[in-house]
Amino acid sequence: MKKKQIGIFSGSFNPIHVGHLILGNYMCEFTHLDEVWFVVSPHNPLKNTDELLDDDVRLQMTRLALSDFENLKVSDIEFHLPRPSYTIDTLTFLKNNYPDAEFTLIIGGDNWMNFHQWKAYEQLRREFPIFIYPRLNEEIVIPEQFQKNIQVVNAPIVEVSSTFIRNSIKARKNIRAFVGEKVWEFMMEKGLYR
């Protein structure tokens, strides 16, 4: 039986925005992936957590954002694993607990540039396929010996960041189109990022 092909797209999603959705949608429609799981990370060890909203609030926003997409799923798996969240631990857990699925890691070109800083990055590179999506003005170089398992996906480059969203809300800008109606209404109702 053919294994279900699942992309793992981890992030703090602080907040989730249309760039994330476009990328997830692209991966399902233009690669072999059947689904993309948005793994909401409680704590990325390489990121500052000063402006990080509560885990459950970010999870709820992600659920709202993906509610109309059949092949884009939300996962809170890292809420139940030791912290900080390391990708190798998450993917190993998923591989062991979902034997009918094959998992592909989805990362940005910026993450590929510092991939050597990730825990067990050599094991990750060996054991899991990796899709790298481009970022503006970044050249992605994959050494020849890894090209069987790692590939650049020619996804659209959408220059929207969660930092831009947070700063725009603080500046009282209406950025509804950048986050979608359901997430915007939720953020306004809760007074998030003010």
Distance, first to last CA: 50 Å
- Summarize model confidence as the mean pLDDT: 94
Structural class: alpha/beta
**Which spans have pLDDT < 50 for at least 5 consecutive residues?**
none
CATH architecture assignment: 3-Layer(aba) Sandwich
If you consult CATH, what is the topology?
Answer: Rossmann fold
Shape: globular
Fold topology:
Blueprint (H helix, E strand, L loop, with lengths): L3 E8 L6 H13 L4 E6 L14 H12 L5 E4 L11 H11 L3 E8 H5 L7 H7 L2 E4 L16 E3 L9 H9 L5 H4 L1 H10 L4
Parallel strand pairs: 1-2, 1-4, 2-3, 4-5, 5-6
Helix pairs in contact: 2-8
Labels describing this entry:
37% helix, 194 residues, alpha/beta, Rossmann fold, globular, 17% strand
Q: Explain this structure to me?
A:
- With 194 residues, this protein is α/β, with parallel strands linked by helices.
- It is 37% helix and 17% strand.
- The protein has a 6-stranded parallel beta sheet, sandwiched between helices.
- The mean pLDDT is 94.
